[in-house]
Amino acid sequence: MKELKVKITFLEDVLGTASNDPEIHAEFIASNAPDALSREEEIAAVGVDEVIERAMTVFPRDGNGNPILFDYQVKGFFKDTCGMLARLKKSGNESAKLKAYKKVIDGLIFVEPRMIPFELSGEIQSCQRPLRGQTAQGERIALANSESIPAGSIVELSIIMLDADHEKMVREWLDYGRLRGIGQWRNSGKGRFKWEEVA
Description:
about 200 residues; alpha+beta; Alpha-Beta Plaits; 6 helices
């Protein structure tokens, strides 16, 4: 077994991924009911600010109201990263050698603590951006809105590997964070980070 303690410093803003609406499931079902309010009627009934706030993705909070990452979000980053790096078969990287990588990450690599608090470098802002999608009816555009933790913010965590041979691979994944980060809108560079080992 091997434990790696790391400090992650974000090079770009990190965007929240959790729904800000505590009753999202009920609202989804209601929005598909035949007598559901249209979006325009909903805005008229509760106001623009209320609709925008509920539609915003946010960071989960700890008991003191501080924004956090959950351990499973870091493991999700590891899976995404390993899947990408495994495509580089001729590069000789560790990820390309790993078979059934999702099972290995789920069962042999663990992140602590469960709730990883952010040390903020400034105020939490919001990031609005257009989302484009191709549908059967043609291209659709929507507006996405997320809480945004500023670049320079830090998290510290421990990565526990039940097989010490996985350490080289985990370090490879952390290095990839400089190119593709954690959170929403990673394709634009959001959530990119550098890391260092801490004693």
